[in-house]
Specification:
Elements (H helix, E strand, L loop, with lengths): L2 H8 L5 H15 L13 H12 L3 H14 L7 H10 L4 H10 L3 H13 L7 E4 L2 E4 L4 H9 L2
Antiparallel strand pairs: 1-2
Helix pairs in contact: 3-4, 4-5, 5-6
């Protein structure tokens, strides 16, 4: 599925081109590697591996590797071999990661996260929520600070 199709499906009344430009601009301002996303990967397996990595104390390492793979290198996070490479880069055991995927060990936790997102009407990630205020998508430090300090 293309980025534009995904945005049209998930976030009604949005302009995918504006979103892409804002993402690129924010990444550039923050000094983050970023390449235009032509396709959207199904990230469910990456979410399961991410939860497993967190349980092993390597969540930060895995998420950084996954960010770089997806946003800087435009790799498919649904591809098991891509995920195993990221697992290894995060300092984890690919054989154990394969078992996690094969047994769907973290599937219920991912389902619970998705259910909560639906209940909270979250359609874009990241989404930051404080009280009844929310910011969706990549945000500047100033925008996050304003939300964090708002009443």
């Amino acid at each position: 599925m293309s980025f534009a199709e995904a945005m049209a499906q998930k976030a009604k009344n949005t302009d995918p081109q504006k979103i892409a430009v804002r993402l690129a601009s924010t990444a550039r301002d923050l000094g983050l590697a970023f390449t235009e996303q032509l396709m959207v990967s199904n990230t469910r397996k990456a979410q399961e591996i991410g939860l497993w990595a967190q349980s092993r104390g390597k969540g930060h390492e895995f998420h950084n590797a996954a960010y770089r793979a997806y946003f800087a290198e435009a790799l498919n996070l649904h591809d098991t071999e891509v995920l195993m490479d990221l697992v290894q880069k995060a300092g984890l055991d690919p054989a154990e990661a394969r078992t996690v995927l094969e047994t769907s060990f973290f599937a219920h936790a991912v389902d619970a996260d998705w259910d909560l997102a639906k209940q909270m009407e979250i359609v874009v990630i990241p989404t930051f929520i404080k009280g009844n205020k929310r910011l969706a998508g990549a945000q500047t430090y100033g925008a996050l600070k304003k939300l964090a300090t708002s009443q």
